[in-house]
């Protein structure tokens, strides 16, 4: 591993990346399906009114995702700037662009809940569809931020296979974004395209946390060695 990579910064970056993953999965994959029916606007409006607290939790999770994405982008810059400043800056900028897209989605979800509580049967559905498309647009930037991240892994002495998973996964996210625009029914193919990214991201989180939290055996041995007495 490149000695220019700071262990405390790696630890914080790993924790922020982990928070990004947890809030994203909890909000988008767990809460959203419980308050949004993509085929029926009336059902969506009813679900939001009947499960207002759950809808608010979903909005809070998405806002937490925005915060963790933005902070993770900044800490990745700190982590990799000594390795290659331009690529590190690219990770930061592209990660922020994805955060902005999800921030727009968060606002759309808040508007969906507000219009549902006001009795509008159609407005919530339109806001959820806007949110879905903001996620789709943001996925392009998410793919783009993985590409320089993969390059930085290759340059830093971290496992080269991880770097290639991130590079291929970033390209997969880009292809998925265009595929879902051009062929909306190609869901299975789109899911397969991002599998390398999923492997790479989980590996990256685990590796950063391992680097950040592992004990330095040489320092521990020195600290535990009894002092010699004259």
TrEMBL record:
Entry-linked InterPro entries: DUF4386 (IPR025495)
Pfam families recorded: DUF4386 (PF14329)
Name under which the protein is recorded: DUF4386 domain-containing protein
Keywords noted in UniProt: Membrane, Transmembrane, Transmembrane helix
Listed transmembrane segments: 12-35, 55-77, 89-114, 134-154, 161-182, 188-211
Organism of this sequence: Isoptericola sediminis
Superkingdom per UniProt: Bacteria
Source taxonomy: Bacteria, Bacillati, Actinomycetota, Actinomycetes, Micrococcales
């Amino acid at each position: 591993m490149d000695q220019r990579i700071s262990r405390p910064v790696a630890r914080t970056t790993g924790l922020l990346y982990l928070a990004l993953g947890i809030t994203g999965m909890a909000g988008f994959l767990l809460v959203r399906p419980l308050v949004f029916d993509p085929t029926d606007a009336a059902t969506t409006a009813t679900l939001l009114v009947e499960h207002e607290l759950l809808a608010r939790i979903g909005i809070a999770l998405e806002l937490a995702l925005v915060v963790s994405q933005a902070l993770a982008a900044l800490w990745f810059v700190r982590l990799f700037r000594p390795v290659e400043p331009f690529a590190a800056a690219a990770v930061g900028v592209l990660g922020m662009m994805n955060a902005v897209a999800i921030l727009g989605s968060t606002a759309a979800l808040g508007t969906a809940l507000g219009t549902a509580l006001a009795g509008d049967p159609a407005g919530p559905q339109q806001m959820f569809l806007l949110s879905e498309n903001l996620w789709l647009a943001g996925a392009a930037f998410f793919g783009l931020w993985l590409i320089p991240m993969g390059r930085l892994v290759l340059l830093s002495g971290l496992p080269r296979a991880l770097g290639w998973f991130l590079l291929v996964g970033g390209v997969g996210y880009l292809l998925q974004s265009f595929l879902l625009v051009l062929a909306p029914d190609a869901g299975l193919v789109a899911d397969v395209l991002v599998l390398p990214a999923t492997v790479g991201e989980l590996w990256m989180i685990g590796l950063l946390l391992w680097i950040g939290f592992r004990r330095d055996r040489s320092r521990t041995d020195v600290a535990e060695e009894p002092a010699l007495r004259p």
